[in-house]
Design brief:
The strands form five sheets. A nine-stranded parallel sheet has the order 5-4-3-2-1-13-12-9-6. Strands 7-8 form a two-stranded antiparallel sheet. It has a two-stranded antiparallel sheet with strand order 10-11. The protein is of the alpha/beta class and 486 residues long. Helix 6 packs across helix 7 and helix 12 crosses helix 13.
């Protein structure tokens, strides 16, 4: 571990007693994803949750190791069903019964898992999917709900479908014009009416960061909660941040569907720390500080002035996520891959300058790095090896204004080589590149650009055990000069 990482861990350890003395914000939890080459073992993650007094967690599958580790903790859990299972659950009720039996009922009972929600799919109606899940999502939901009811679980938990905020829109960017997207409107109306009839919640993922990323003219301060954004009046309400406006656009869309009081859960909200000029620890700290203060006040939004239920995204960085949406996709974590906190964050919402409690018991691979062999490298011929290392490793921290974007050419290549080498578990064969690389015991970190050492992870079965439903597309890399990641 580098001195910088160790410092953050030590700070996190010092504040443990502070966290125990102050009540955390009510109604918030975290997303725990595992699209990582070396995911932290579940027992370490659960201890992190406990140390930070977080008692709600949202999963993207129902992996047995994770579920067994959560058993007996009392933490509220939202288990997930990956999009690739929707068709089988939609077409055969027996499959839905089997899924509930194996992934819900098996963990119920004394000292079991406190399952609160079952998420059927994840953002299945993204326009990027071109309607791939449009015909199967609702039937899958109905079958899962029926199976939960038949098993006697619906008094304890609810089925839901986490949707991206893309499923609704406004013709003039004002909340009062909110309505469901035309190509999914019929299905969405069927779903929300089913929700209403069965007292099920609407779950939506809202990302103010993406407003900045997708629109270069978007007013920066409107993405945050400090009231510095230009206020937008609408039907007697004023909006000074995009979250409130987005949330209330959904409220209006539901009203137009004849539904006024449906519970809304924020399934994902967060801010990345690398991979884009606005993806920085400083801005992530600013965003989360404002969000937690907002949640602590329990004032809700202009149309819904009530306590919000929110799951922060995400708990940990994931180095194997698709980067097609943007290089920042691998940097949503409040914590790095090894459970080291990346910025100040007070889960009480009181705005104190404290750091979350870091992971304990993390074991690292040997303190060695893969770097360029300056004696043998031919810079005119290294491009294919660099592209290979980045494609199969993770070079997103070199993109744009990220923390590793100021490296010189040799350092860039060394960074790429080392990321590939670490992801491959420090296999000696992964630090060759036709003789242009070598292993060193000297810390290769350059300034604030961390050259990481990978952690010792659990079973291979736990790694990449599900397909994250958010973006099922291949990663893209384009060699341009040195390298540009898209």
């Amino acid at each position: 571990m580098t001195g910088r990482a160790a410092m953050l861990v030590n700070v996190g350890t010092v504040i443990v007693t502070t966290l125990t003395l102050v009540s955390l914000v009510r109604g918030f939890g975290v997303n725990w994803g595992n699209i990582a080459s070396h995911p932290l073992n579940p027992d370490i993650v659960v201890r992190m949750l406990k140390d930070n007094k977080i008692n709600k967690v949202k999963l993207f599958d129902a992996h047995s190791w994770t579920m067994n580790t959560l058993a007996g903790t009392g933490m509220e859990v939202m288990v997930g069903i990956p999009n690739n299972l929707l068709e089988s659950l939609a077409t055969d009720y027996e499959n839905a019964k089997d899924w509930v039996k194996e992934n819900v009922t098996a963990y119920m009972g004394k000292d079991g898992v406190n399952i609160k929600y079952v998420a059927v799919g994840n953002e299945p109606f993204l326009s990027a999917y071109n309607g791939s899940f449009l015909e199967t999502t609702f039937p899958a939901l109905k079958n899962i709900h029926k199976a939960l009811k038949e098993a006697g679980h619906t008094d304890k938990m609810k089925a839901t479908i986490p949707q991206n905020a893309e499923v609704y829109q406004s013709a003039n960017d004002k909340p009062s014009e909110g309505d469901f997207r035309s190509d999914v409107k019929k299905t969405m109306l069927d779903i929300v009416n089913f929700f209403h009839d069965n007292d099920l919640p609407f779950t939506v993922n809202i990302y103010p960061f993406l407003s900045l990323y997708l629109n270069e003219h978007f007013p920066v301060e409107f993405a945050f909660f400090d009231g510095k954004g230009e206020s937008i009046p609408d039907n007697g309400k004023n909006y000074d941040n995009v979250f409130d406006a987005n949330y209330d656009t959904l409220v209006y869309a539901l009203k137009k569907a004849g539904i006024k009081d449906m519970k809304i859960i924020i399934g994902e909200i967060g801010w990345p720390t690398d991979g884009h000029k606005y993806a920085t620890p400083k801005l992530a700290e600013k965003f989360y500080a404002g969000l937690m203060k907002r949640l602590a006040k329990e004032e809700g939004t202009p149309l819904r002035p009530e306590r919000l239920e929110v799951y922060l995204f995400g708990f940990l960085d994931e180095d194997m996520k698709s980067i097609m949406p943007g290089p920042f996709e691998r940097h949503w974590g409040i914590f790095r891959y090894d459970g080291t906190p990346k910025f100040m964050l007070d889960f009480t919402g009181k705005g104190r300058k404290i750091v979350p409690v870091a992971a304990k018991g993390v074991k690292y691979l040997d303190k060695q790095w893969c770097i360029v062999n300056k004696d043998t490298i031919n810079l005119d011929k290294v491009a294919p090896d660099l592209e290979y290392a980045c494609y199969h490793g993770d070079c997103t921290a070199m993109k744009g204004d990220s923390r590793c974007s100021k490296l010189d050419r040799i350092q860039n290549i060394s960074y790429a080589f080392n990321m590939y080498y670490q992801i491959q578990g420090q296999d000696v064969r992964a630090c060759d590149f036709k003789g242009t690389a070598r292993i060193t015991k000297d810390n290769a970190t350059v300034g604030s650009c961390l050259f990481p050492i990978q952690i010792v992870s659990g079973s291979d079965d736990f790694r990449i055990s599900y397909v994250f439903g958010r973006f099922v597309v291949a990663a893209g890399l384009v060699l341009l000069g040195l390298i540009t990641i898209i």
